[in-house]
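Hi W.,

Here's what went into the run:
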Amino acid sequence: MRFFAKNQGLPGAFYIIKEKIMLNISKKGKAMPESPIRKLVPFAEAARKRGVKIYPLNIGQPDIETPEIALNAVRNFEPNVVEYSHSAGMPSLRKKLVDYYKTVDIDVEADEIIVGAGASEALLFAFQTIMDAGDEVIIPEPFYANYNGFATNAGISVKPIFSSIDTGFALPPIEEFEKNITFKTKAILVCNPNNPTGYLYSKEELETLRDIVKKHNLFLISDEVYREFTYDGKKHYSAMHLDGIDKNVILIDSVSKRYSACGVRIGWMISKNKDVISTAMKFAQARLSPPTFGQVAAEAAVDTPDSYFEKVTKEYLARRDAVVEGINNIKDAFCPNPSGAFYVVAKLPIDDSDKFCQWLLEDFAYENQTVMLAPASGFYSTPGKGKDEVRISYVLKVEDLKASIKVLDEALKVYPGRR
Amino acid sequence: MRFFAKNQGLPGAFYIIKEKIMLNISKKGKAMPESPIRKLVPFAEAARKRGVKIYPLNIGQPDIETPEIALNAVRNFEPNVVEYSHSAGMPSLRKKLVDYYKTVDIDVEADEIIVGAGASEALLFAFQTIMDAGDEVIIPEPFYANYNGFATNAGISVKPIFSSIDTGFALPPIEEFEKNITFKTKAILVCNPNNPTGYLYSKEELETLRDIVKKHNLFLISDEVYREFTYDGKKHYSAMHLDGIDKNVILIDSVSKRYSACGVRIGWMISKNKDVISTAMKFAQARLSPPTFGQVAAEAAVDTPDSYFEKVTKEYLARRDAVVEGINNIKDAFCPNPSGAFYVVAKLPIDDSDKFCQWLLEDFAYENQTVMLAPASGFYSTPGKGKDEVRISYVLKVEDLKASIKVLDEALKVYPGRR
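Here's what came out:
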């Protein structure tokens, strides 16, 4: 037992207490959310052991091939020593990214970019650069579940603003944002095109966000890792296209989805705010450098020919259509038709999506097949929301998606918690 | 301007205040230390532009070749998609690490290992798993400067315990530890062999640490990334060799130094404490996975033949001898003769090592050459310590090291701040 003089709140009043200090994990560690996507894994493993075929529609791991040009750059790696790179990322990679952004009408300099081990690390740098423990970030929900983890990691609070499946998950009205701004609010975070909803924000919606962050001196963090995946002739409008908020915008980006290279772990943050960059650099320097091989792949990937994206986008579009049409043909189910990314959030006639997704793996099979879905509850921060919704990633071929929808339809016919 | 109801400390007394909220970076960001090693970089760049040859003795980037077996594994990467790996690291890599640990008499299981983007990320996982904001970790100083950055990142306080160059930086006496243990102390962190001192802790010193952590229910974080680099016939004794504190020990390790593969960014944490592993896993899952290519290299590297290490250790030993002997031959300079890693901390007859290291780059050259050293002040957490000490990394060939020592000797003869 340790004995300490402890101030119990009254000035001057110290007294000795005995305290049994145990070998405990941290409160933060206890508060860290479990991945809503990965928590079903043991049930899937058990199902596979029983010989059931599972269609994995729960994850953001595309089946699309990584461009040959990126793989070959790594296969042809010549140096004899794998050295640390610059803490902000290899200058040659950052120069290449500057060229890439020119092609999407975004004007940035190499020293406005800090490369991280995935967009995950870049977003953590951004969070910690602009927010302290107790500060608040506003995020339209449903949102990418790991934002909760990064927020807990950085000790900050997520203030969700509800966006509804009935509007296809459009940006909530400006009043909803303003109602939630306190003196602790430091930033608004959007993901565009959106994971998990696939929603592509319009130019007008972006301009609304600009007006809010300008008026209230907030940062606007824009996660645009799905930028290339837009459909129906719609074009992506970036937070970096907005005028007058150069100092407010922090762009988060990555090669993971764009080039189907999730495992290279290369993402980055961009800011034209010099204080943001010089501060984020201190976090980057502490961990020395991002992965060298991944950077080599990423640099080469920028030269991926347009034909790759044309093919990939066409494929995703066919998949989206198969999923959206398929779900809307299921009795009492509803799926918006989003214009971006490779996810949809669908509404199903069920009591509880967590229970339903587990039941699909534990207790159901149709012709010895089942589907693995992500319960949408994990993408909401407000308790109770998303209970009748699931996220579906369309990362399988059209015929497999069609088979999956058939399985889902049959499952809903017999699910005991059907509503 | 934003208007808020704010409690000014007296219960019940709320009143409306106007507050101009600016677009500021965080307090944490401001508190993040700059890298003491990298802050001299602009001066080195300027010197190089003037045509001065610089011997870089300031960094931990070895010139030793990465084992061919590791490079070839990446060059032969076959999959067409670079996928996310398991959040804890590829099972095949972790199995291989289990085999590696058998060779150094450490008995671990694959599910006791969590792989990170370098030991840096693994250490951050460990810090956050066991400590909350305001908690304290005791570290003998001088210590690896980036521990300060990771502590600031996690919001925890470093309590340094002074180890003296006069004892060659041996472990401070047990009373020094106990004097610094408060109810907020959660862990002791040691680096063994030590960066920056090169000191190799003895079995007896490790047992002292065991007694302390056992008595006070503390975690013992042991950073052993230099395990293979020991000299003078001395053997490395690991924290995992200690009996009776299985739940307390968290081992930090990496391939960066062992296989001269710093850029692959693969390190890991090991714990036999299931609560620690399951909590750290939540941090690992939030960022999805460690780099795939780096893991491929790391897995192959474990099969590096012993002859590689015999050659490398022999080379480092010759370098250490050249540096230690060289410095001790300089008038009024002193260098202990450490038995591990590839660093020494030397005492020089100077007023201020920060000034001296900058002066070497800005105002000095001998036969158009100079040396780049790391001021030891950056490795102390107590202000004012290490002002007459520098860290030297012996990561250059013996002849270059000898030339560097000559330059240093000449510099000390004319340095205006000589004492």
